[in-house]
Amino acid sequence: MDLVASTDKSIQWTDGMEDIQALSATLKRRRQINFLKAYVDCGNIRAACTSVGINPASVRQWRENDEWFRKQYLEAEQSYRDLIEQEVHDRAIIGEQVPIVGKVLTPAGLEDQIIGYKTVKSDLLLMFHAKRHIREYRDKYAPDPDDNKPVRESPMVQINVLIDRIAEKATIALPSSNPAQLPPADDDVIDVTPEGASPSLHSDITPEP
After folding, report:
1. 3-state helix, strand, coil in the chain (%, to 5)
2. In sequence order, which residues have a C-beta less than 8 Å from that of residue 56 and are 6 or more positions away?
3. Residue 108 is assigned to a structural domain of this protein
4. Which segment of 1-10, 56-65, 74-83, 134-143 scores lowest on mean pLDDT?
5. In the predicted model, is pLDDT for residue 202 greater than 50?
6. pLDDT score recorded for residue 205
7. Are residues 58 and 102 in the same domain?
8. Are 93 and 121 contacting, i.e. CB atoms less than 8 angstroms apart?
9. N or C: which end of the chain has fewer CB within 10 A?
10. Phi, psi angle pair for 88, to nearest 5°
11. Distance (Å, rounded) from C-alpha 199 to C-alpha 209?
12. Which range of residues forms the domain containing residue 126?
């Protein structure tokens, strides 16, 4: 007390609450990270809490009130699903190496020993794997509505297609202007215009007096 009273510098008293809160937040984050690591390995909330010494109620509270933990929890959940998916793929398609046990003659007599290995695949897991990735293998298969949706072209493309169709119809309906492509006439054309007279283009019109 004498030392404080004799100093000529200002003293700012603190209760250390900020440090305590920062330490508490750090410990909480570490507990969350430990839980997430355990959850990725087992995929079970209660088992993960038991392994790291956390109450499951704390995990529920974190998921409701902590945005960072909620996102990390979803990532951990997806990681565990990917782990299951890989394991199903390996057992269904690649298969497991199962030992073959046979009788082997030894100095002590016949004994059961491993004489080889065989690859065993799971038809049941393959069925579920196929249903997971191929819609046609599912029990209640419904075609994807997007498969039958008409392709909507841009207005400019639609106009160009319409112009091409009109031009195609006009080409079919009208004869070609090239004389070489005209069909041959059955009879020769006879000119009946009197000699010295020019044919009138409007012979059906009576001139006025």
Report:
1. 55, 10, 35
2. 45, 46, 49
3. yes
4. 1-10
5. no
6. 46
7. no
8. yes
9. C
10. -65, -45
11. 21
12. 97-142
